[in-house]
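thought: fold this chain, then report.
action: predict
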Amino acid sequence: MPKYKKYFPWFKNNKKWVYADSSATSLKPYCVIEAINEYYEKYSTNPHNNDSSLSSYVNLKIKETRKEVASFIGVSDEKQIIFTANATESLNIIADNVCSWLKKDDEVILSFAEHSSNLLPWIEKAKTKKFKIKYAAEKETNELTEDAIIASITKKTKVISVSNASNLFGYTISISNIVKQARSINPDIIIIVDSTQFFPHHQSQLDKWDVDFFACSMHKMCGPSGVGILFGKMKYLEKMNPLKLGGGTVSSIDSDYCVNLAPIPERFEAGTPNTEGIIGSLAAIKFIKKIGIKNIEQHELELKRYFDKKIKSIPNIIYMNEKAHFPIIALNYTNINPQDLANYFGKNKIVVRGGMSCAKLSYKITDNNVGYVRISLYFYNDFSDIDRIISVLKKFKPKDIVKNII
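observation:
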């Protein structure tokens, strides 16, 4: 198994720790940190200032990043790539505009497995717009399946907005198949993909998938925090309104105070951008491309299989998503609150997540309103990390929770 830890300073500084919370945020390699430091040390200028060679260089880097993002996710026109603060902002921009096009009794398909960022904007808008939200899910399992989504589509369905990889259960779905089936029922249906979890681990091909919108965050793919990606088809971007207006978003304001918006994508990128974050994101994409997304997929599949084999030796474990071919593990220990178990892991220098992991409606399909311990792995994890997790879990006794409380 390849040794990827050498690229990440976190492991040098935390030698006794296991990092297993990459679904929340990934670790950053040296090259990303160096790219950010280089910006601060050598350039550190506002890209809106076009009067120096320093800002020209920074603008070239931003353009290069936009082009690299487009290529990485399979988009032919980089003008359809918008930089936001995070996937949450991307999804809010999308929902705010798409909801304005909906009418009473139109249908929007979501799932109970969605992250709050792909739930709350729709729920709030439905209160005033009076469109109907339908939740697609298999009732007897915790899986979000393509069949469940397709079965929910009717002639009234105007929007499908789902994640192609669940951040709590790790189940993946084929968006291209859903698009094909959905458009056979309603050619004008709008397909929105929250790919926050999927895109760091698998190849995205947006032009081939034919999706209308796509959102993700760079901090989950070895990049800096504060950089989100919003992809939208140009035919929709052209009729959308920015959520924020300010510097860089307008071409002119005439004598009658008529505002002419800047071209796309600039009209959606108000104010000074997260310049260092965008430059760091460029380094992250180049790093991931060098490792190879297919190599990452294979590495993580081996990790998941190894964990599946090892966990069978531990009694009292409720393993919720063994069938998922994704490096997210959701489990509980019988009669133990997952937050207590996550805290136990933390005391043993293993970083995991306990609770609902922002999938607040997942209890609708699992009858579990307290959540799970989520162990989320990335390509820098190895078999030794899993051995540590298994070893600590084997030593766990319910009385340990009492000791922690005392």
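thought: worth noting. Residues 53-72 form the longest helix (20 residues).
final: tokens above.
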